[in-house]
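Task: complex structure prediction.
Instruction: return structure tokens for all chains below.
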Amino acid sequence: GAVVSQHPSWVICKSGTSVKIECRSLDFQATTMFWYRQFPKQSLMLMATSNEGSKATYEQGVEKDKFLINHASLTLSTLTVTSAHPEDSSFYICSARDSLANYGYTFGSGTRLTVV
Amino acid sequence: GENVEQHPSTLSVQEGDSAVIKCTYSDSASNYFPWYKQELGKRPQLIIDIRSNVGEKKDQRIAVTLNKTAKHFSLHITETQPEDSAVYFCAASRGSGNTPLVFGKGTRLSVIA
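Output:
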């Protein structure tokens, strides 16, 4: 079935630094990638929709200059958390739809970000 | 945009009993309704889904029902087992490729042996 590979699985960084998270679709082309954030004991909240070759669409309240999204190819989307702060510590997870799998959603394995 | 409400937020049942989790959605154009089980620190795992052209779907101990008119759908787990204990999320989306899933707030199910 469709696989989305997400890296890193966990990262610890210092306040003020930037962290890049990658999601790759391994066996299908993902023209659209969705990025979610999940705080402890909460639901998955959509941050942005990433479209290959065009600008991402951000949800209300998500700072596009802080969460940089790049979707330069049909198999790779990246999320960069810039100038990270402790409140950015969260579980970040990507998702894509596979048109060949009846449009089911496939999730990456998630990235646990801790900002110290 | 879509808004998905999920109840209850926590649910405790005795092993062998049934568990029911309910969700409502707001966007009448939504036509795909999956249910996920999530363990701590892991990706959501699809356990069952239903599309708006059917009213019920069953897979062994798990079933989902959909009422399009009322815009609500429910997850039914029968003969619950301790390993069913987890957080369950409902979600909804439209059918096009560039529309995201919108999740409910989740239900923490505890199955007591």
